Amino acid sequence: MNKNLISLVIITLFASNAAIAASYQAGDIVVRAGATMIDPDSDKSGIDLASDPSGLTLTVDDNTQLGLNFMYFYDSNWAIEVLAATPFTHDVNIQMGDEEASLGEVTHLPPTVSAIYYIDTGTNFMPYVGAGLNYTIFFDEEFTSDFKDAGFSNLELDGSFGLSVQVGADYQLNDQWHLNASARYIDIDTEATFDVEGDSVGKSDVDVDPMVFSLMLGYKF
Ligand code: NI
């Protein structure tokens, strides 16, 4: 799934004017499933070795997983949303000048709880804005075999607690089913540490700060 596809879906939703009298009500529960892509900020993060800048930098690739949303409506405008997903695994690359190599991979879960406000449109196109909190936990951090053979070990990324903001829209297909597209920014900052030949000398402050794009099918209970 890419950004162009999501843009296309959002434009299609905007262009549609069929007036199904759709609205959410207090007590409604919505469950959604679909594709969620995490696209980290492409800025490079510098790596310190023994507390000194090494000239090496890190980047993190994007990854798409099964995304899940659970929502509870307090009234027709306000809802609380939980974003869950199967674990994301990102390739981590290391750069020296123009040279790039695959350094390893990290897996994480980024559960996010958001307050959502739906804007009244009186149509089956229902846009919303949201803000919330994210906790990202990293696990299974691992160097590639080349770096392991070169003496790199013990890669660890700290958990991150940060804010999230999003925009999205539902397109009601009927009373129960809808299509959903959303884009959110999550502030995820972590410190990566690692050992070289048994000494804990490597450190990098990584601003992952991803855009998170979801395309989902939803059901209202
Ligand atoms: Ni940040």
Strand-helix topology:
Elements: H1 3-15, E1 29-39, E2 45-49, E3 52-60, E4 63-73, E5 78-85, E6 88-96, E7 99-109, E8 112-118, E9 125-143, H2 145-149, E10 152-157, E11 160-172, E12 177-186, E13 189-196, E14 199-207, E15 211-220
Antiparallel strand pairs: 1-4, 1-15, 2-3, 2-14, 3-6, 4-5, 5-8, 6-7, 7-9, 8-9, 9-11, 10-13, 11-12, 12-15, 13-14
Q: Could you give a short description of this structure?
A:
The protein is mainly beta and 221 residues long.
Task: Trace the largest sheet across and list its strands.
Answer: 1-4-5-8-9-11-12-15
Our count of helices gives 2
Count of strand segments: 15
Distance between the termini: 28 Å
- Overall outline: elongated
- Global mean pLDDT: 91
CATH architecture: Beta Barrel
Structural description of this entry:
This protein has 221 residues and is mainly β. The chain has one domain: Beta Barrel (Porin). It is 8% helix and 66% strand. The protein is built from two helices and 15 strands. The protein has helices spanning 3-15, 145-149; strands at residues 29-39, 45-49, 52-60, 63-73, 78-85, 88-96, 99-109, 112-118, 125-143, 152-157, 160-172, 177-186, 189-196, 199-207, 211-220. Strand 2 and strand 3 form a beta hairpin. The two termini are 28 Å apart.
